[in-house]
Design a protein that fits this description.
The complex is a heterodimer of chains A (153) and B (661). In chain A, 31% of the residues lie in helices and 28% in strands. Chain A has a five-stranded mixed beta barrel. In chain A, a hairpin with a 5-residue loop joins strand 4 and strand 5. The longest helix of chain A has 30 residues. Chain A is elongated and about 75 Å long. Chain B is α+β, with helices and mostly antiparallel strands and 661 residues long. Chain B is 63% helix and 11% strand. The longest helix of chain B is centred in the last third of the chain and has 48 residues. Classes of the chains: A alpha+beta (153), B alpha+beta (661).
Chain lengths: 153, 661
């Protein structure tokens, strides 16, 4: 093999691997990136059961119920419409998690329509707002997401 | 006065960076053997610039130490009641201060290079210092025009705002400075690569100059990432050790590039192969450092929209990023063809294995980069997504697994060309360990695929790491080889910790009344009491947990839920019980209506090995540097002695009387 050819072969192999990585990344990202849903969107076009997504909205007043084991809570998350998604979470609640506060739940939808949260992001100080809700009132958020998130797969 | 002196020092340093850049540029125009008269200023300029930039940083440190509230930065980030150590570490716990630290380290490494590096040809050195000055100049401009750390308030503040409580931790004292030093060490590798490319001096002696900088930066990055991971683990209270958070990825990407660069520069130094590839990686590594700085410092991570609202800083760094990376790749594209072909090698050789792993590392880098930028990209189109472990873990593993396999056998291969049949026994041994461990683990229980693969690979790598020592006299093995063995063994140790954490972690979450007991693994955890406590700038509730292993003597753990009052914020302080074979991790949560307290306890077997492994890897790098320095010192001494002897002989020869007939 001539010197020039070896260099060419190396460049080709490297390019192939990088392009492969890029394609793999694109494919995995389509499947694994977790999209952000508002309650009304989740009610209208629910994600597949078990797919990792994020649900963001307000904790409905009077909906937080702690189960007898003391660590599992059930509550409803609402947006701008009457739609409310029941959420179930086992774990230590963020400090400022109260009724009426904004929350982003990471998790997936169960077969019974209950959203199983593995992690709750809520305000834990005065200034912190979950990234997805930043700079938006609920109405605005709903409008933005209605335009953009629906129909995504 | 302090602030004004600091600002003046920065301006002077910026002026010297211009001088360094211009003078370095003149070096390119000099004829071989006759140094350009304008080129002699680059070295002194770099040294003085380093002194001034470090002085500016020390002055800011002093302003924080005495809490000078007339300086805006101090007033917005410090508080007179804070403990001294956090006043000091708070200096770089904010945007302006950390950029000053960045620039200070950049100038310092440029100064060290100028003061101590005498092996390179003067032309290459001049070009290198010129590039270094050009890079520094951009960041001085950034500091002076858009993030002046010494800005005064018109009226001094009465009291400071305080520092984010999450950052009030000893982790902050070591984590960012180490990472920055690593980032910026790569700037020297970048400047050297550009200098060599501009003067067409891409050869083994250049690689030997570049290698300690790459190794040093890589050691610091390794250490910084390890420390950062442990810090996040105990400070955030979620029990995880790596979150694939964009800020973490920002430090991982330069590390991946630096790891590839370190191996490739070794090939260049030892074998004179992979010339252009090394240069490319040098550019890539520093590009990743700057990209990391941009991601963390521009506000783009909070929201693309936040970035668009206050674009000045972000746009400035983005501009610098485009200028340097674009410029570097343009020069690379124009000049790479002119770099002569290096020595050739067969596919089955040590070079071949290193190239394969270089490519795999680059692929992992691409995966991480795309995953980090994807949410920013979609957000620009108003689609909000988050990318987490379900993407990163499998996608990275697809390239990491073949990389680990090649890493096991690569060091056993000979340079240039080798027959795989020669290392048949070693390959079979490694394969047997790999398959044996996976079979054994899957026999005892059902575990996810990745942790199981990890356990098998960890065992195989641990065996493979020491195989290069087989049949060698241990006392005669060079330190650099020991460094490699240790670092590769460290990878195995770290992988073992990660796999064990993934496969065997046990968790218990319960609401417990005082006096109640919960069982997790071998441990019985009893909640004795919950009491309020107070610190210098926080109040907290503290649980007393009596933990006894297999009914043994109980140990008291006291996790806290803290409330800071300046700025107001709540944090969870985990309590850790470390055993040789793992850690018990406890946090306390809220109180339920019936008076019970939520506690969450994990038993994480061998989780500490993750960070022990990281430290071993860094230590391996230190050994390699020590080995190279030792060889260099020996060579310098030998040259000096040879010169002295020749001079003596000459003196003798001149004085010696002509022998009589």
């Amino acid at each position: 093999m001539k010197a020039k050819h070896q260099r060419l072969a190396l460049v080709l192999i490297a390019l192939l691997a990088i392009v492969g990585a890029g394609l793999l990344a694109a494919w995995t990202l389509r499947n694994q990136a977790s999209y952000f849903y508002l309650p009304e969107q989740m009610a209208a076009t629910p994600p597949e059961v078990g797919q990792a997504v994020r649900l963001g909205g307000m904790v409905q007043a009077g909906s937080i119920k702690t189960e007898a084991n003391g660590v599992t809570v059930n509550f409803m998350v609402t947006g701008n419409t009457a739609d409310a998604i029941p959420v179930r979470y086992s774990g230590i609640l963020p400090d400022l998690f109260v009724e009426g506060s904004g929350v982003v739940a990471e998790g997936s939808l169960g077969p019974d329509g209950v959203f199983f949260a593995t992690n709750l992001l809520a305000k834990h100080d005065e200034n912190y707002v979950p990234r997805e809700l930043e700079g938006m009132g609920t109405e605005e958020a709903a409008k933005m997401a209605a335009d953009t998130t629906v129909g995504l797969k | 006065m302090i602030a004004e002196i600091g600002l003046a020092a920065l301006w002077l340093a910026a002026a010297l960076a211009v001088l360094q850049m211009v003078s370095g540029g003149f070096a390119l125009r000099s004829v071989e053997g006759a140094p350009n008269p304008m080129a002699i200023y680059a070295r002194p300029a770099a040294v003085v610039q380093a002194v001034l930039a470090v002085l500016a940083f020390i002055l800011l440190l002093y302003a924080f130490a005495v809490t000078d509230l007339s300086i805006k930065l101090v007033a917005t980030n410090s508080h007179s009641m804070k403990p001294m150590i956090y006043k000091l570490t708070g200096t770089w716990g904010n945007h302006e201060g950390s950029m000053l630290l960045w620039v200070g380290v950049l100038a310092l490494s440029g100064g060290l290079l100028a003061a101590f590096e005498k092996r390179l040809p003067e032309r290459t050195m001049g070009a290198t210092l010129g590039v270094q000055g050009f890079v520094a100049l951009g960041f001085y401009a950034f500091l002076l025009f858009s993030s002046n750390p010494f800005e005064r308030l018109p009226v001094p503040a009465v009291e400071g705002v305080g520092l984010n409580p999450l950052l009030q931790d000893i982790g902050l004292a070591i984590h960012p400075p180490t990472l920055y030093a690593g980032y910026v060490g790569l700037s020297v590798a970048f400047s050297l690569a550009m200098g060599a490319l501009l003067t067409k001096e891409v050869n083994p002696s250049f690689a030997r100059v570049m290698r300690p900088w790459v190794l040093g930066a890589w050691v610091l990055l390794t250490f910084g990432i390890t420390a950062g991971s442990y810090w996040a683990y105990y400070e955030l209270g979620w029990g995880g050790w790596w979150f694939w958070d964009p800020v973490e990825n920002a430090s991982l990407m330069p590390w991946l590039a630096a790891t590839a660069l370190m191996h490739s520069v070794s090939v260049l130094a030892a074998r004179d192969a992979l010339r252009t590839w090394t240069i490319m990686l040098g550019v890539l590594a520093f590009s990743m450092s700057m990209l990391g700085t941009f991601l963390v410092r521009s506000g783009v991570l909070t929201s693309v929209h936040a970035f668009a609202v206050d674009p000045e800083r972000g746009a400035f760094i983005l501009g610098l990023l485009g200028l340097y990376i674009g410029g570097a790749f343009t020069i690379f594209a124009l000049r790479a063809g002119a770099v002569a072909e290096g020595k050739r090698f067969a596919a089955t050789s040590r070079e071949g294995a290193l190239v394969f792993n270089n490519v795999m590392l680059s692929a992992i880098l691409a995966i991480v980069l795309l995953g980090t930028l994807y949410p920013l990209l979609t957000e620009a189109f108003d689609v909000r997504v988050s990318v987490g472990p379900p993407y990163f873990n499998p996608a990275a593993a697809i390239f990491a697994v073949p990389m680990f396999l090649v890493m096991a056998v690569g060091p056993l291969l000979r340079w240039k060309e080798d027959k795989p049949a020669r290392i048949q026994f070693e390959m079979l041994l490694v394969a047997a360990v790999l398959i044996g461990v996976i079979a054994l683990v899957s026999f005892f229980g059902q575990f996810p695929l990745l942790p199981m693969l990890g356990l098998g690979l960890a065992a195989a790598l641990a065996v493979a790491a020491v195989l290069p020592l087989k049949g060698r006299k241990l006392t005669r093995v060079p330190s650099a080889t020991w460094g490699m063995v240790l670092a590769h063994f460290g990878v195995a140790v770290s992988l073992f910790g990660m796999a064990c954490e993934g496969a065997f972690t046990q968790e218990r979450l319960a609401a417990v009344a005082p006096g109640g007991t919960e069982q997790v693994g071998d441990f019985a955890v009893t909640l004795q009491s919950v009491t309020p406590v107070a610190g210098p700038n926080w109040t907290a509730i503290e649980a007393r947990l009596a933990v006894s292993q297999n009914g043994g003597e109980p140990v008291i753990l006291s996790p806290q839920a803290r409330n800071f009052w300046s700025p107001p914020q709540a944090t969870s302080e985990s309590a850790l019980l470390t055993r040789w074979n793992g850690q018990l991790y406890a946090v306390i949560g809220n109180q339920a209506e019936d008076g019970r307290w939520q506690i969450r306890v994990w038993w994480k077997p061998f989780v500490t090995f993750i960070w022990y492994g990281g430290l071993l890897i860094a230590l391996g790098g230190v050994l390699a540097i020590a080995g190279r320095v030792k060889v260099d010192v020996k060579r310098r001494k030998a040259t000096a002695m040879g010169d002295a002897r020749r001079a003596d002989l000459e003196a003798l020869g001149a004085a010696a009387p002509v022998p009589a007939e």
